[in-house]
Amino acid sequence: MTYKTKYSVVIICLIAVCILLAACKPASQKKANSVKKDESFVDIPYSSPSFKSIHVFVALCDNKYQGIVPVPASIGNGQDPASNLYWGCDFGLRTYFKKSSDWKLIKVEKPGKHVLERLIFKHISKNYYLVADAYDGQYIKQATIDFLHSCSGQLKDTLHVGNPTIGINGNASLLGYIGHDGLMDFHLTNSFKNADGKNRDCIILACISKKYFAGFINEAKAYPLVWTTGLMCPEAYTLHDAVSGYINNETHEEIRLRAVKAYNKYQKSGIQFAGELLVSGK
Question: Does the pTM of the predicted model rise above 0.90?
């Protein structure tokens, strides 16, 4: 990629960030693919005393299938992870975590079905794996359902990374969601009642996520380390810094403040604004 081309991509991403501040609005004329009923649950209980895992669900930004104010077409194609705003752009999860000095990318998978790409990272000094799934943007509803079923412990699975077997979905200790708040556009009739008595932590980086996700998170008995009270840009730096606090066993407030500082650093929103936007607890 030439310098000129790379510069153009950066400009497009910056423009898209500005658009995103107005993008998370209900739009009845655009509907994501409906999910009529739950698929058969995978329920593979697993735990390892030697390391923990973090599982992040990313609903790729999608002009066509999501109720958002459209972003530039090159980064709003929900079927193309490589150039997507939430995945392949400079502050998308894939790019940002690959550049991080704290994480090492050890495996890339193409699970198929709703997940177009899966990345598996290993922390360089802590016994943590981070698994990130890029969901086809038209299946944002399925991404939301899978995230919530994982928070409740109804959906559990494992992955093999060489010799280690790591837990994902409900077997992860921390679950994350990044993307448009699809609950503004569709309703869920699924049950997300906690299935095993375990209380999982979660981070939900989507517009007004506390309002729209609260009932489901309460039913799942999950604890929201970071979620939002207003419109926001769900880029990866906020997640990255909050996760850093989490794996260092910091308090809930310390984790939240890390997210606040990261958001302010990149969005220039002001600490007070970011502090009111990114909150913790129920």
Answer: no
Q: In the chain, which residues have pLDDT < 70?
A: 1-42, 45-49
Residue located via tokens 């932590």: 201
DSSP state of 66: S
Total Cβ atoms within 10 A of residue 143:
26
- Distance, CA of 194 to CA of 64 (rounded, Å): 34
Q: CA 221 from chain center: how many Å?
A: 19
Which amino acid is located at 74 in the chain?
S
List, in order, residues 6 or more apart from 201 with CB less than 8 Å away. Answer: 173, 174, 175, 222, 223, 224, 225, 246
Q: What is the DSSP string of 185-237?
A: T---------SSS---EEEEESTTHHHHHHHHHHHHT-EEEEEESS-----HH
